[in-house]
Amino acid sequence: MFQEAKHQLGLHQNQTRSWPAWQHHVALTMMALHLLLDTQVHERETIPNLSFASLKLVLAQKLQNFLHQDDALLAAVHQRAKANAQKLPRAHAP
Question: Is residue 75 part of a domain?
Answer without folding.
Answer: yes
